[in-house]
Amino acid sequence: MRRYGKNPDEDDIRVRPNRKGNRPRTSIRPKHEDACEGMVLTVDRGRLTCLVEDRVILAMKARELGRKAAVVGDRVWLVGDLSGAKDTLARIVRIGERSSVLRRTADDDDPYERVVVANADQLAIVTALADPEPRPRLIDRCLVAAYDGGLDPLLVLTKSDLAPPDGLLERYGALGVPYVVTTRDEFVDGVAAERVREHLTGRTTAFVGHSGVGKTTLVNALVPVDRRRTTGHVNAVTGRGRHTTTSALALPLADPQGGWVIDTPGVRSFGLNHVDPSRVIHAFPDLEPGTAECPRACSHDEPDCALDAWVADGHADPARLHSLRRLLATRERHEGD
Ligand SMILES: Nc1nc2c(ncn2[C@@H]2O[C@H](COP(=O)(O)OP(=O)(O)OP(=O)(O)O)[C@@H](O)[C@H]2O)c(=O)[nH]1
Ligand SMILES: [Zn+2]
């Protein structure tokens, strides 16, 4: 289903995540042979800051792209003045095929899904163990967004100096989601950043978490000031004193191993109207064969779903089906999500 134009680079064309990390190739021939490849670092009211080689360039989308939006993490091709000098504005003429999409439906009364981040291979879900209290349904909804978009989830449980992680870890045990637990002291001595960084090397990780969970503390610890110069430049270009929370922001991890941290604005809710259960079940390869006998377009969360009988026959761990069902059930929004 395509909504806009005929460009095969559309948002809603899905590609499975590429585990080897090599970028997928686009099959179409570029119209602008001389265009240079770059990556979108942040978006601010129609102005996109892009990294081209080692230069930060301000750009806008070319008219020919139509309604298709470029988002943080997108690979783009640019033409025009690519010097990065003050008061220059390049044009984005092509957006590369995406290896993953983190998307959300803004609100229940807003049916349009929005891609928040493109090409991330991991979603770090930052949750405080206390102050504010963890919101397991929100975590579940983030997990659904990750599985739906083709990102591997990572749980980052902060403030373990205030409360233990046991309850949450038990809840997510059957899902096998990797996790890191951090405390305040570990932020001071750098151990927390080191432990989280082990999961980030060579990957592009989008960080989500609602206000107050310690996401800023964590991102600042991960990307030291000198690595954030790129952003400083971005802000000089866009005229913003500091990063405001309207767009995600890509920050480079230290070389030589590389990797990117993509900070996203505090997520208060994660609309999931767009989620396709068949994409979520891809994240459960142990259960997927059991869906062969399901009715057409089964949500896998309905009485006729074949998974119940299949799991009862001993083909898979019932705790896994229980977790899948719990996640699928979060597609319906409740008060407080
Ligand atoms: N006790 C404790 N407090 C922490 C820890 N990490 C961060 N904090 C505190 O939690 C508060 C919120 O931290 P931030 O890093 O600003 O949280 P945030 O998620 O970025 O929140 P917003 O900026 O509102 O989006 C600050 O007062 C931090 O000092 C921790 O491990 N333990
Ligand atoms: Zn089913």
What characteristics describe this protein?
Rossmann fold, binds guanosine-5'-triphosphate, 337 residues, metal-binding, binds zinc ion, six-stranded mixed β-sheet, rRNA binding, single chain, ribosome biogenesis, Small ribosomal subunit biogenesis GTPase RsgA, alpha/beta
Q: If you had to describe this structure to a student in words, what would you say it looks like?
A:
By secondary structure, the chain is α/β, with parallel strands linked by helices. It is built from nine helices and 13 strands. The strands form three sheets. Strands 10-9-8-11-13-12 form a six-stranded mixed sheet. The chain has a five-stranded mixed barrel with strand order 1-2-3-5-4. The radius of gyration is 21 Å and the shape is globular. It binds guanosine-5'-triphosphate and zinc ion.
